[in-house]
Design goal:
The chain is α+β, with helices and mostly antiparallel strands and about 190 residues long. It has a single domain, classed as Roll (Pnp Oxidase, Chain A). Helix content is about 20%, strand content about 30%. Strands 1, 2, 3, 4, 5, 6, 7 and 8 form an eight-stranded antiparallel sheet that branches. It starts with a strand and ends in a 23-residue tail after the last helix.
């Protein structure tokens, strides 16, 4: 039987922090808009800041749907599945906010992540304020073995200077605006704080 929780602590926090991948779901307000689900999994890029606040690092990619939806309405769900051990699924429903590189909070938030997690291609830190925390059985989730992180994403963006990364973002049709035309990543990309 599933349960709801007042806070992210103890066993629940440990479960979240041990999972190598999680999923982020968002949607625009428009009924005809595109619902988005994104996998996240680079090691060290998720942090439980306190019992009701999480943050994760948002890196470059071919779209910025999550950022656009959060800017429009803030609704977000994070989900973790146990692919080994006891069958468990944990969801955090809440309000999310992208903190961009020119935001005065950006540098302080980066301090919550290990230095090796911060890398080339970082667009924003996404803050999530939990409103509903729950778990459920993961009886239908398959067992899968984690081997290692894929290095391709970090290597690809690691070959680009920050200026080249900015040009990459500007060259993508759905990074500055979403699939539904919502404002997404601010362009030109703000420089990283020095």
């Amino acid at each position: 039987m599933g349960k709801t929780y007042e806070r992210i602590d103890g066993r629940l926090r440990e479960f979240i922090e041990q999972q190598p991948v999680f999923f982020v779901a968002t949607a625009p307000l428009a009924a005809h808009g595109h619902v988005n689900v994104s996998p996240k999994g680079r090691s060290g890029t998720l942090a439980v800041l306190d019992e009701l606040t999480l943050a994760y690092l948002d890196f470059g990619g071919s779209t910025a749907e999550t950022i656009a939806h959060l800017r429009e309405n803030g609704r977000v769900t994070l989900m973790w599945c146990a692919f080994e051990g006891p069958p468990t699924v944990v969801r955090v429903h809440g309000r999310g906010e992208p903190v961009f590189r020119d935001d005065p909070r950006f540098a302080g938030l980066i301090g919550h992540f290990p230095p090796e997690a911060d890398g080339a291609g970082l667009r924003a830190v996404v803050l999530v304020a939990a409103e509903r925390i729950s778990d459920s059985c993961g009886f239908a989730v398959p067992f899968m073995d984690y081997r290692a992180d894929r290095e391709l994403h970090a290597q690809h963006f690691g070959r680009k200077s920050d200026e080249e990364f900015g040009a990459y973002c500007e060259g993508k049709s759905h990074v500055g605006t979403s699939l539904d035309g919502l404002p997404a990543l601010p362009l030109p990309l703000p420089p990283r704080p020095g």
